[in-house]
Design a protein that fits this description.
The protein contains 16 helices and no strands. Helix 5 runs antiparallel to helix 16. By secondary structure, it is an all-alpha fold. Helix content is 75%, strand content 0%.
Length: 406
């Protein structure tokens, strides 16, 4: 059992090595994109390891949903920070991101081999993995975050709005609207004492991190030119990471504008990398490593990939680290507690909407696909790796037998 009243520095809770190994496992097995990652994190780090409580996890999720950046990677970064301090945060980022970044940098060499029917069947199988994982996340989180009719109504309305309007900015509107709805409707909720975030640093450092975020956002364009230099790459990816709300697929238009618009990467290269990003574990923002490797800066592809990757994630990490020290004081207010409850309910609605579109609509082309996903759902109790192996093998077998249409 975990002690909900523990306020020690996170450095006394665990080592960076422990954090690295836990997130390396997640980085190697977390298929399904940013929405599915929330379910993986909750199962591995809350339920299995008990690093934080359900209440702390939901508050961290609310913070990451509110801020620009890759929400699932920000959540992983903060979980590593609370468990192992700054070294733990860095370990979480590296371990969770490195496997997918390496695979995407290597993808250019093997892309032709994945254009045939077998490669397409593998990708389709991974879509079925996402369907099983996200369905499990929706069920698990709805039980915890929508225990009453008011929050269930917020979730249903949020899902309906997202499915009806579809635009990327609607997700941010739904999250904000969920907070307002929770503040108005969840009057019976009160702050839960003894659930602080033991960050190990104070508001002064948080303010410094916020100033750093703003300084880079304003300063990088002053040193970046139109030609694809390392400075220009850093500015383009930092800008995309700083301005995207919702993370995941929402970042794609910004990245396309940043690298395809000026002619650094052509449309075919961009779409090929995007397809590869769907077929591997880890964060969607690791797509930046592939794009960095493709940009002709005159430097080694690995160096350019590293610059793109770091500056893609950096703004989101700076923002969430800046907010954490002040969150304990903010969250003690009843109004904040009610707003967080509404935000969490809205997030469940977002998960439900994404479960249908694009995951279900793109993964299920017939009854056989649905059956594969249902069996995968049943295998989640054993290991996500079993789900991946089953869904991919079944999809490839169907393609070989001429039974599937993708």
């Amino acid at each position: 059992m975990i002690d909900d009243t523990n306020t020690e520095s996170p450095r006394s809770h665990g080592s960076a090595r422990e954090v690295f190994l836990a997130f390396l496992k997640l980085g190697l097995t977390s298929f399904g994109g940013p929405i599915a990652h929330l379910g993986y994190f909750r199962a591995e780090l809350v339920q299995r390891r008990g690093w934080v409580t359900e209440s702390q996890f939901s508050q961290l999720l609310a913070i990451c949903q509110f801020l620009p950046g890759p929400a699932s990677s920000q959540l992983g970064f903060t979980l590593g920070l609370l468990r192992g301090g700054w070294r733990g945060a860095l370990a979480a980022f590296v371990a969770f991101t490195l496997p997918s970044a390496i695979l995407l940098v290597l993808f250019a060499a093997i892309a032709p081999a994945l254009q045939g029917p077998v490669g397409m069947a593998v990708i389709h199988g991974l879509k079925l993995v996402a369907l099983a994982v996200v369905a499990s996340a929706v069920l698990g989180m709805s039980k915890k975050l929508c225990p009453d009719r008011r929050r269930q109504a917020i979730a249903v309305i949020a899902a309906a709005v997202v499915l009806s309007l579809g635009a990327a900015w609607v997700q941010l509107l739904v999250v904000v609207g969920g907070g307002v709805a929770g503040w108005l409707a969840c009057r019976n909720l009160q702050p839960s004492p003894g659930e602080p975030f033991p960050t190990g640093y104070g508001i002064r450092l948080g303010a410094g991190l916020l100033a750093t975020f703003l300084l880079l956002l304003v300063g990088l364009p002053l040193i970046a030119g139109a030609t694809p230099t390392l400075a220009a790459v850093a500015e383009a990816f930092y800008r995309a990471g700083a301005l995207v709300f919702g993370g995941g697929h929402v970042v794609l238009p910004l990245l396309e504008e940043a690298v395809v618009g000026p002619g650094w990467v052509n449309q075919e290269q961009f779409l090929a990398g995007y397809g590869a990003a769907q077929a591997i574990p880890g964060p969607m923002f690791a797509f930046s490593a592939y794009l960095g490797a493709e940009i002709p800066t005159g430097h080694a592809a690995v160096l350019c990939a590293l610059v793109a990757l770091v500056f893609m994630f950096l703004p989101g990490f700076l923002l969430v680290s800046a907010v954490l020290p002040a969150w304990d004081a903010i969250s003690r207010h009843a109004a904040t507690t009610r707003a967080i409850a509404g935000v969490n309910a809205a997030v469940v609605g977002l998960l439900g909407a994404a479960l249908y579109d694009p995951i279900f609509t793109s993964a299920v082309t017939g009854g056989a696909d649905l059956a594969i996903a249902l069996i995968g759902f049943g295998l989640l109790g054993r290991s996500p790796l079993w789900v991946v192996l089953w869904c991919v093998a079944a999809s490839v077998a169907m393609q070989a037998a001429g039974l599937s249409i993708h």
